[in-house]
Specification:
259 residues; 3-stranded mixed beta sheet; Rossmann fold
C-alpha cells in the first residue's frame, strides 16, 4: 500500500510539495517493481480529477494546465507517473482516489481537520459557497483492502462518501460542538487580499496560513464525486458523513485540540 503524501495546500516553496509527492511515488513504485510485489494499491486523490457541474466519476480527468494549486498538481503528476509505470513497466497497481477523509487520529491536522477544529472552537464565523465530498477515514481504509482484493490492475476507484456544502458541514459541526452555526456567506473576491496577506506572513513565520489564494480559487468548484464504480466492482460502502465529523470532534477533544 502506498498511502503517504505531503498534504499541504501551501508551502514557502510550492515546488517542494510536487517534488515530495512525485519522488515518493517513484521511489515506492520502483521498490515494488524491484521486489516483485504481486499487487500494489496506490493512493491518489480526487484532487487529480476535474470537478464539474454535478458529481463526477473517474473519467473526469485533470490536466497539468487545468489543475489548481501545488497539492493537486502534485497528486496529478504522481498519478500519471504510476499510470506510466503500469503501461511501460507492468507495475501491478490499482489506483484509489479518496475524496475528503474525516475522522479520528488526524494528528497534524490536515487542511480539512483544521476546518473542523476552527469551526468547533468558534473561529470560523463565515464561509464561501462551495462543497466537498466527506467520507469517514475508516471507510477509506476498508476501500483500500477491497481494492487489494478485488480491484483490477490499472483501474482507478473513487473512495468517497456524501456530497455536502460547506455551509451544511459547518452547521453540523456547530451543532455537535454546542455552538451557533455561522450564517455569513462571503463573496470570494474581497477575500483575496486577505489570503495574499496571510501568505506573506506565512513566508516570514513558516506557519501554514489558514486562508490561501489557491484555496479560494479551488472553492469556485464544488468537489462532488461518485463512488458508484467502487460500490459496483469492489463492494465499497460508506457510512453517513456525520459519523466522521462526530468521531473527528471526539478525537480532537480528547487530544486537546479544541481549546
Amino acid at each position: 500500500f502506498h498511502v503517504a503524501a505531503d498534504y499541504r495546500l501551501w508551502a514557502r516553496d510550492s515546488g517542494e510539495i510536487e517534488r515530495n509527492n512525485l519522488k515518493g511515488a517513484q521511489a515506492s513504485m520502483g521498490a515494488a517493481l524491484k521486489c516483485g510485489v504481486e499487487k500494489v494499491v496506490y493512493t491518489s486523490s480526487v484532487a487529480a480529477l476535474k470537478p464539474g457541474a454535478a458529481a463526477v466519476d473517474e473519467t473526469s480527468r485533470h490536466t497539468p494546465e487545468s489543475v489548481i494549486g501545488a497539492y493537486k498538481r502534485s497528486k496529478l503528476v504522481a498519478e500519471r507517473e504510476v499510470e506510466r509505470l503500469i503501461k511501460t513497466e507492468r507495475l501491478p497497481a490499482v489506483i484509489v482516489a479518496p475524496s475528503t477523509p474525516i475522522g479520528p487520529r488526524d494528528i497534524k491536522p490536515t487542511p480539512t481537520g483544521r476546518i473542523i477544529v476552527e469551526a468547533a472552537t468558534g473561529r470560523m464565523p463565515a464561509f464561501v459557497d462551495t462543497g466537498l465530498n466527506l467520507v469517514h477515514v475508516d471507510d477509506v481504509a476498508q476501500g483500500h483492502l477491497l481494492a487489494l482484493d478485488k480491484g483490477r490492475i490499472g483501474d482507478n476507484y473513487i473512495l468517497g462518501g456524501e456530497d455536502v456544502s460547506l455551509e451544511i458541514m459547518l452547521a453540523d459541526i456547530a451543532g455537535m460542538a454546542g455552538r451557533k452555526a455561522p450564517t455569513i456567506k462571503l463573496p470570494r473576491a474581497p477575500l483575496f487580499p486577505l489570503a495574499w496577506g496571510a501568505e506573506f506572513i506565512a513566508r516570514l513565520t513558516g506557519k501554514e496560513p489558514f486562508l490561501t489564494a489557491d484555496a479560494l480559487r479551488m472553492s469556485r468548484y464544488r468537489m462532488f464525486f461518485s463512488s458508484e464504480k467502487a460500490r459496483r466492482e469492489l463492494g465499497y460502502t460508506a457510512r453517513p458523513y456525520q459519523e466522521g465529523l462526530s468521531d473527528a470532534l471526539s478525537w480532537f477533544a480528547q487530544n486537546g485540540y479544541l481549546r
